[in-house]
Sequence to fold (203 residues):
Amino acid sequence: MTFLALKEGHLFPEGEGKYLDTKLQTDEDEQKLQSRLLNTYYFARTSIEEQGVNLLYLALGMLRWYDTGDSETLRSAPLVLVPVSLERSSAQERFRLRYTGSEIGANLSLQAKMKSDFNLTIPDMPEAEEFDFNDYVKAINTHIAKEANWSIDADAIELGFFSFGKFLIYNDLDTGKWPKIAKPENHHNVISLLESGFHEDVL
Fold:
């Protein structure tokens, strides 16, 4: 995944006024920023045109953690993903970042990893009408409180590409979540293959 780290505010402004506008601030210089934004814009547009899927998200908040047995490598993963689009009316205009209106969600891959590797639950996000980002961060903090040197950077904002297609397929294939009647071991063809065998109908 490619990320563009962002901060609230205007590009390289001075003073407290930079936090009162609707622009985003980044540490990239002007030329490199425009190049990365242009590449991001084309890649996002291509994914929509070829796959019909928007992969561009604004990630809010970062969980910082260490894998078991590796206390040297600090790992990061976003908590909340907001589907966005990069737009501009002409090549001379600055890019605008817009919310697409699609569902804002938690990081499904992070939830699965925390559950499988650490037996920790990253709570699902509440309904949009009830969602409060700070409350959500507090809820996650209660679940990771016992993990040494883990933390949440609630102010982190990154723009990047996220694809959950493979994870959703993996999730669908988790038979533990299937109804009992639909489990593979209960299917008559599987039973015939592994137990009773296949028999021709007797006329």
Summary: Residues 3-173 form one domain.
